[in-house]
Amino acid sequence: MDLIRRRLLAALVGLALLASPALAQEKFIVVASTTSTEQSGLFGHILPAFEKATGIKVRVVALGTGQALDTARRGDADVVFVHDKVAEEKFIAEGFGVERKEVMYNDFILVGPKDDPAKVAGGKDITEALKKIEAAKAPFVSRGDKSGTHAAELRLWKEAGIDLDKVKGPWYRDTGSGMGPALNTAASMNAYIIADRGTWLSFKNRANLTVVVEGDTRLFNQYGVILVNPAKHSHVKKDLGQAFIDWVVSADGQKTIAEYRIDGQQLFFPNAKR
Amino acid sequence: MGTFTESLSTAAGLIATADAKLASIVGLSLQVSLTAVAFAATIGLPLGAVMAVKRFPGRQAIIVVLNGFMGLPSVVVGLLVYLLLSRAGPLGPYGLLFTPTAMVIAQTMLITPLMAALTRQVIEDAWREYEEQLRSLGATPWRAALTLLWDTRFSLVVAVLAGFGRAAAEVGAVMIVGGNIDGVTRVMTTTIALETSKGDLPLALALGFVLVALILSVNMVAQLIRLWAVRRYG
Amino acid sequence: MSSVFPLVLEQICFAPSGQPIVDRVCLAIDGRVRTVILGANGAGKSVLMRLMHGLLTPSSGRITWCGREQRPRAQAMVFQRPVMLHTSALRNVAYGLKLAGVPAGERMNRAAVALERVGLAPIAGRSARVLSGGEQQRLALARAWALDPQILFLDEPTASLDPGAAKEVESVIREIVASGCKIVMTTHNLGQAKRLADEIVFLDRGRVVEYTPANVFFRNPRSAEADAFMKGELPWT
């Protein structure tokens, strides 16, 4: 009995050692970004190039924009890479970020059922489309999760002059979820939804949904990258993090971003200022 | 139904070709959950055994809590461990968040009450039979607990398997404390969640089949070991 | 090893829920004779034995061993139904020795000798749980005997056995006595009591009604309760 117990103990210790971060030796940073960015597949394309150029591994934690910034506020990330200018500037004003650099933009699209109950298809004005949807009380799915996409959606309703609190009803479905699950919900409910083009292009469960409105400049979605302030969190890997930021706005990084395609379509348009 | 059969064949294909990405995800899932089971058993089995044989004030209350915690929501455990391991939290300086170690910690906390509660029940039933004889022979409660743990080992295997099943199947805790980082903390359950949220339901379902096959395999191996041991030890 | 005798019970009461199961029992048991506790079902025989062995704590009263209150280690008990671990017969005996602090090598030797003495050497390696009732009871005796006790308590040791097995167990008990160990046994088998007892403690409703040498008790019981008991019981020979 004792021999077996001793062997079991040895096996336990062995397992425990296996689970310890053997990856602790390598150079890495933690980047807090958004689920829509990760699900677009962009990181799978640009991070290997970055690692090749610098030897630094990037660990992307994909959350909603609000959650990503909160994670950075707690000091659990080295860099944030999100798309909500207002929230990002607040983040810096609070002292949690060093500097905001613009990187690229992609766009949002309005997606809806093919039979288009609110008659918005083909339009070029997103605010007009939203007004029509509200007037028709057509089913509309919102992410409702403090994400950049959600913030953009709320801004557009405001620009359309609609006070959501006043007109909210069963037609406006607040799901509190990421882009993919929200699209799933919209597909099963035959509802309208504002989505980012990247997630839409990789989304395979479209059912009856199709793009109804696109191209309005108000739908453009600007990405910013910020180094978490080492003055607030001394353990932040500021050199490695800065290397990532420098690369992403460099000619090399910008070119890599532009080269990313889904079904031959470019998703992200680099616009870093030199 | 089409999705179902399509996913089954996808699953079979993934397993047959030993898809490299899948293999590393499966490997990490096993590593994390098996390690958690090992730690949880080391804490939970003796804890349950001592609870069964010793009488002390407040015992009934602790039993109620332990039994209740068997059903701890994994997201709650994940959240608690996140707050512990975050840089803003008490264990922040160790930098454990978003690592496999964090996932092991969370899963260990999740399944220890389960294994302790099940062990307590098994040992308590055995204690009813053995108590007088063991005390007559001079066994202290601690000594008796160890003896019964060994004596009921075949029934305890089920408790351990229950713990493994719970750990391997949960997504709430590992998602929050691991961050589902590609190549670092992405396990079977978080991959399934990711593919589902991307809308790739057939792939998600296929991975689901693979996960179920994995859990069944572990149970099968355990059963074979058990049968061999019964033949050997009686 | 110093003697643990006499075992003295002073005004022992056991009344966990008010009603006394053992009522003001006073006894002084020495180590030279075989003591059998008789009584009807529910008289309190098993409880009294557990109080003596230390498995139960009396509600009031004092138990001393050779004047000392400390419960001695040189005692063992065999129960009506033997309780064996899921392991071999040999290891079961060795387990008792392990608890007694005997080092590993010596343990296995002493266990083997104990099995030899009760005639179970051939099945030493077999799983204890698959042995017959009689074999398991002899195994329990081996386990107790291996501890080299000065006193052995036996609680209805053959009540669950067929006559053949019971006979084998009785012969082991006789050998244990011959080796110098004192026994205190309960039974409601009068024939067995006649065969094995030197003195009788007769219990009725928790009280010691008679405490006399066996030959006196069986020929001429002093109390009405004992008389009624023996008339009511079928004498097994």
Tell me what you see in this structure.
The complex is a heterotrimer of chains A (274), B (234) and C (237). Chain A has helices at residues 2-19, 35-39, 42-54, 65-73, 85-93, 126-136, 148-159, 164-167, 179-189, 197-202, 238-249, 251-258, and strands at residues 28-34, 57-63, 79-82, 97-113, 140-142, 172-174, 192-196, 209-213, 220-228, 261-262, 265-266, 269-270. The longest helix of chain A has 18 residues, at 2-19. In chain A, the strands form two sheets. In chain A, strands 1, 2, 3, 4, 5, 6, 7, 8, 9 and 12 form a ten-stranded mixed beta sheet that branches. Chain A has a two-stranded antiparallel sheet with strand order 10-11. Chain A folds into two domains: 28-106 and 221-270, D-Maltodextrin-Binding Protein, domain 2 (3-Layer(aba) Sandwich); 108-219, D-Maltodextrin-Binding Protein, domain 2. Chain A contains twelve helices and twelve strands. With 274 residues, chain A is an alpha/beta fold. Chain B has a single domain (19-233), classed as Orthogonal Bundle (MetI-like fold). Chain B contains ten helices and no strands. Chain B has helices spanning 2-16, 20-53, 59-69, 74-85, 100-136, 141-151, 153-169, 172-178, 188-197, 201-233. The mean pLDDT of chain B is 92. With 237 residues, chain C is of the alpha/beta class. Chain C has one domain (7-232): P-loop containing nucleotide triphosphate hydrolases (Rossmann fold). Chain C is built from eight helices and nine strands. Chain C has helices at 45-53, 89-99, 104-117, 133-146, 163-178, 190-196, 214-219, 224-232, and strands spanning 7-14, 22-29, 35-39, 60-65, 75-78, 151-155, 182-186, 199-204, 207-213. A six-stranded mixed beta sheet of chain C has the order 5-6-7-3-8-9, sandwiched between helices. In chain C, strand 1 and strand 2 form a beta hairpin. The longest helix of chain C has 16 residues, at 163-178. Chain C is globular. Chain A binds chain B through residues 1, 11-12, 15-16, 18-21, 23, 30, 35, 39, 43-44, 59-62, 74-76, 177-181, 183-184, 187, 199, 202-206, 233, 235, and chain B through 31-32, 34-35, 38-39, 42, 86-88, 92-93, 95, 97-101, 104, 150, 179-182, 184, 194, 196-202.
